Each structure stands twice: as C-alpha cells, then as structure tokens.
Amino acid sequence: MSSLRTSGLTKSFGGVKAVDDVTVEIVEGKINGLIGPNGSGKTTFFNLVTGLIRPDSGRVFYRDRDITRYAPHRIAHVGLGRTFQLCRVFPRMTVMENMLVAVRRTGLRELLAGTHATSEVERARHWLTRMGIEHLERAEARNLSYGQQKLLELAAVFMGDPELVLLDEPAGGVNPALIERIVTLVRDLNAEGRTFLVVEHNMDMVMGMCDHVIVFDRGAPIAEGPPSAVRADPRVLEAYLGV
Ligand code: ADP
Fold first, then answer.
1. In this predicted model, what pLDDT tens digit does every residue of 37-54 receive, in sequence order?
2. Looking at the predicted complex, does its ipTM rise above 0.90?
3. Distance between alpha carbon 93 and the CA centroid of its chain, in Å?
4. What Rg do the C-alpha atoms of the chain give, in angstroms?
5. Which of 12, 17, 43, when mutated, tests ligand 1's pocket best, judged by the most ligand atoms within 8 Å of its CB?
6. Which atom, in ligand 1's list, is nearest to the CA of 38?
7. d(C-alpha 163, C-alpha 228), whole Å
8. Spacing, Cα 86 to ligand 1 middle (Å)
9. Which pLDDT tens digit goes with each residue over 130-174?
10. Whose CA is nearest to atom 24 of ligand 1?
11. Among the atoms of ligand 1, which is closest to the Cα of residue 43?
12. Which site in 49, 121, 136, 183 is 20 to 30 Å from 130, CA atoms measured?
C-alpha cells in the first residue's frame, strides 16, 4: 500500500519550477531517503505535501485520501508528521510544555490551567524517554543543546502518533554520536511500523539508513531505488558531480 503518493505535483516561484510535475510513491513501512543537489526542490516538495504551501497543479494522496488542499494541522491529524530543517521548538516553554502543545487536544489554555489529561503527560514522558531526554522535562527548551532540541522536536512529532514521518535534515548541525542515536531511533521506530521520508545531505547516513532512495534534480526525480543502485546511477553522478 502506498503511504504517500503525488501525481503531477508542480510549484513555481516566479520563473523557477521548484517542483516540476512530480509523480512519486512512498511505500508504507520503508525508510525512504530524498536526496538531490541544493535547489533541486526537496524542501518545496516537503512543504507541498505537508500543506505549508499550495501546489500550482497536481495532487497529493495520503493512504489514497486526497489531501491536496488540507491545512497543515489537518494533514498532521491524518497521520503525517514532520520536523523542520531549522529545528522548531518553543524556546521559552519547558520541554514538557512543548510536548503537550504538540497534541491537538491540548490547547494553550488547558496547558496554562494545568487541566491537560494525565495520560498525555504519560505519553509525553514515554517519548521523551525514548529520545533520552526525559531528565530535561522541566528545563526551558532554549536551555537545551541544539541536538537535544532536535530530539525534543522529534519527540513532539510522535505525540501526534504519525504513521508517516518526514524528517528534514535530521543530521544537520548534530554531532556524530547523536547522528548514530537518531539512526538507531529511526530504525527502531520503522521496525514498529512507521514509515519515514528523510531529506538529508549526509550521504553516509542516507545510504546506511534508507531502504529506498529518491533522487531529485531540478525539481523532479531522476532516479530511485535501493541505495547501492542509486549510488552507481550515472544520472545521479552527473547531477551531483556534473560528470
Ligand atoms: P532544496 O530543498 O532541494 O535545496 P528548494 O525546494 O529549497 O530546494 O528550492 C528549489 C528551487 O525553488 C530553488 O531554485 C529555490 O531558489 C526556489 N525557491 C524555493 N522556495 C522559494 C521561495 N519561497 N521563493 C522563491 N524561490 C524559491
């Protein structure tokens, strides 16, 4: 079954076709990588499928449901979660508050009044523990290291119980030990049935972690397949190296 599918997805900025007639399928249950040179349309593709920007034409389907015109919160609600290239947390909220506002049911008002459900706090602790940052529950997010903030962002995404998780450069600005930890986490979460789509510049991470890699160049896929095949594909070498 396809988790995410696009059909003829197109978005231009001025004269630039950032995403150009993209028809791709993300198969459920796999760790998928999305790579490509700078400016090849990866971020625009992420923003289109998560509803942050609207396509000029084409459609986005999640588990065969047409979500093309859905607002971002509605897309999250159907089971699609994402992180951002520049990690997004609320700096002046505590780690636990960040977790609780990530849940659709917990509004800011309930949070401030302390009337959120205990079960949500338990769920938040579960995810913080899995990310290894449960000891920071009461710390303000701005006092966490950048790597810890990335783990917090990831933990918060899981409060929405996503089936498909889009990670935008999870290894960016993160030390090698933490990259290893993120890879292990993604593998474990995948083994538990979650699908991933990862945009990442760190080629070792992509090739070592992903089952399937899609390569973008100038707004569209030019190759896809298992890492070993993609790595040896002449079109990919040309896009990256100009050879
Ligand atoms: P990638 O994530 O692969 O680096 P992007 O999706 O960021 O690529 O960019 C694809 C193309 O679209 C680039 O030429 C970029 O300059 C252009 N682009 C992206 N976002 C905007 C925007 N908001 N306004 C104008 N041009 C944009």
1. 999 999 999 999 999 999
2. yes
3. 22
4. 18
5. 43
6. 4
7. 26
8. 15
9. 999 999 999 999 999 999 999 999 999 999 889 999 999 998 888
10. 13
11. 2
12. 49
Which residue, by CA, sits nearest to atom 6 of ligand 1?
41
Say if strands 16-22 and 2-13 run parallel, antiparallel, or are unpaired.
antiparallel
Ligand 1 center to residue 169 CA distance, Å? 15
Please state, in angstroms and rounded to a whole number, the distance separating the CA atoms of residues 224 and 29. Answer: 17
* Closest C-alpha to ligand 1, atom 16: 39
Question: Ligand 1 centroid vs 12 CA: distance in angstroms?
Answer: 9
Give kind and range of the element (H or E) at residue 51.
none
| The pair of three-digit structure tokens given for residue 242, joined into one six-digit string | 């100009």
Residue in this structure with the two tokens 């090739």, named with its chain if needed: 207
Q: Determine what percent of the chain falls in helix, strand and coil, rounding each to the nearest 5.
A: 40, 25, 35
Buried b (16+ CB within 10 A) or exposed e, 178-196: bbebbbebbeebbeeebbb
Q: What distance in Å separates the CA atoms of residue 226 and residue 210, rounded to the nearest whole number? A: 8
Ligand 1 in reach of 119 Cβ (< 6 A): no
53 CA: nearest ligand 1 atom = 23
Please determine, for residue 106, whether its predicted confidence score (pLDDT) is greater than 50.
no
